């Protein structure tokens, strides 16, 4: 049987079997047919697949044999399965001897298959170990990559933190620099203000010295005139001449008629007089009016701040300084003599350096009267008396200009509760500085009468103001002029210059 030629392979069955990894031999005792079905594929994963195919091919071969043929599988992967009839037909020997030989061969094949299986298992284990090693190396590579990634991320995070810290430090340094610059600027401004205040104080002292010199000179002149008048009177009396009574002009020399009041802590006054205007027409007696009013208010117990010929900057500084001195519950008097103008129903007091190119400039550089009143309201002052002697010709109507419509005087105003505002003349009227060319008084009509009337004891301020208005109207009409002081009164309660 082993020497028979395989029709599928073209070689003897024993030659095919020697080169096969798995084979089956089909033979029969009733005929001379014999065939081998085999594979030489040693791949473990494919051996089973080929075994199944070989078994099916053998079954098909057996099924295709004639019915009288007793074909069967006689060798299955090296294991001899010869039936007794076939063994006798093929070998013709003793059945026992043949069977023993077959058993030995079967054991040898079994051992070979076992060794082959062990080799397959060993190879599988080696392959698994190689795969495990490869997997371990892959995991190690992944771990190393992850470690490097985390290292890079940590370095990036540290760099970002360092960048943020540097930016924060830079911002802090910039903020500190700005704060230091601001402090330096504030110190410089304060230094400039202190220098300006010192200069203003020096100017004020100089002006006070000039005033004292003028008063001293005036006192000397009056003494000389009094001595001359006494001598003339004595001469007249001695010669029995007829004396003629000459009416004395209205004068403000009467404050000395009563002893001065003590200075009260809750009585404060700001007095401003502007004469020496640099661009618009100069005035003649605004400073004298301010000096007289300062003297009169001091005589009735006010702490007086006197300011003369103020520029815009000086005037605003004076208002700020006075506001800082005032406290709630004070009785305040404000007197202003100088140029004033009305713009759109608002009144502006004019510093000496205002050029007045247009209304916008006057609004920016002038001092709004309402600002003074609002400042006193903000400080919760108990009583405010504002005396404004600025009802003169519009200073800006010359040279083709007519700021404020060329109107004379000031516009009507409003007073808050606890305030009284008095203008030296009504709307559209001019306040008189003199009662004619022969009037020797250096003060305007409104101021000289007000300074005199406020010295009367036990007269409320509202009655004093109305007495001033009556007297001003009478004296102005005596020279053919209409001047009616305007009064805006919102005072609650009674207040006195002298009790």
Automatic annotation (TrEMBL):
Output the InterPro entries linked to this UniProt entry. Caspase-like_dom_sf, Caspase-related_regulators, Pept_C14_caspase, Pept_C14_p20
**Residue intervals passing through the bilayer:** none
- Which stretches make up the Caspase family p20 domain? 265-395
What's the protein name?
Caspase family protein
Q: Which UniProt keywords apply?
A: Coiled coil
Q: Name one Pfam family in it.
A: Peptidase_C14
Residue runs in coiled coils? 103-175
């Amino acid at each position: 049987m082993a020497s028979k030629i395989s029709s599928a392979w073209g070689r003897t069955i024993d030659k095919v079997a020697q080169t096969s990894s798995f084979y089956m031999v089909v033979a029969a005792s009733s005929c001379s047919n014999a065939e081998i079905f085999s594979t030489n594929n040693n791949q473990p994963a494919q051996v089973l697949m080929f075994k199944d195919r070989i078994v099916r091919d053998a079954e098909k071969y057996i099924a295709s044999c004639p019915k009288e043929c007793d074909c069967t599988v006689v060798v299955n992967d090296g294991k001899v399965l010869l039936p007794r009839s076939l063994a006798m037909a093929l070998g013709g020997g003793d059945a026992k001897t043949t069977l023993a030989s077959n058993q030995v061969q079967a054991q040898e094949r079994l051992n070979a298959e076992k060794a082959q299986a062990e080799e397959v298992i060993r190879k599988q284990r080696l392959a698994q170990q190689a795969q495990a090693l490869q997997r371990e190396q892959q995991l190690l590579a992944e771990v190393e990559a992850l470690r490097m990634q985390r290292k890079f991320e940590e370095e990036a995070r540290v760099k970002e933190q360092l960048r943020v810290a540097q930016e924060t430090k830079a911002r802090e340094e910039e903020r500190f620099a700005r704060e230091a610059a601001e402090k330096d600027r504030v110190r410089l401004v304060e230094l400039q203000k202190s220098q300006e205040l010192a200069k203003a104080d020096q100017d004020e002292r100089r002006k006070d010295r000039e005033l004292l010199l003028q008063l001293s000179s005036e006192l000397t002149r009056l003494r000389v005139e009094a001595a001359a008048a006494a001598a003339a009177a004595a001469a007249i009396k001695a010669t029995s001449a007829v004396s003629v009574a000459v009416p004395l002009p209205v004068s403000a020399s009467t404050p000395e008629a009563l002893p001065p009041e003590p200075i009260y802590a809750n009585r404060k006054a700001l007095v401003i007089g502007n004469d020496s205007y640099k661009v618009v027409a100069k005035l003649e007696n605004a400073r004298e009016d301010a000096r007289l009013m300062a003297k009169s208010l001091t005589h009735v117990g006010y702490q007086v701040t006197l300011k003369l010929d103020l520029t815009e900057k000086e005037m605003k500084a004076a208002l700020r300084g006075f506001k800082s001195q005032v406290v709630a519950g004070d009785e305040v008097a404000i007197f202003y003599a100088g140029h004033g103008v009305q713009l759109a129903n608002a009144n502006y007091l004019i510093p000496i350096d205002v050029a007045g190119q247009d209304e916008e400039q006057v609004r920016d550089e002038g001092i709004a009267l309402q600002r003074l009143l609002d400042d006193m309201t903000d400080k919760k002052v108990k009583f405010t008396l504002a005396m404004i002697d600025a009802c003169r010709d519009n200073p800006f109507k010359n040279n083709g200009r007519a700021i404020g419509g060329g109107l004379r005087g000031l516009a009507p105003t409003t007073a808050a509760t606890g305030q009284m505002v008095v203008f030296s003349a009504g709307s559209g009227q001019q306040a008189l500085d003199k009662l004619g060319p022969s009037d020797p008084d250096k003060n305007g009509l409104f101021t000289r009468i007000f300074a005199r009337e406020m010295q009367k004891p036990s007269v409320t301020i509202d009655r004093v103001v109305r007495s001033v208005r009556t007297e001003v109207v009478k004296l102005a009409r005596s020279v053919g002029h209409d001047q009616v002081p305007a009064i805006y009164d919102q005072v609650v309660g009674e207040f006195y210059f002298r009790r």
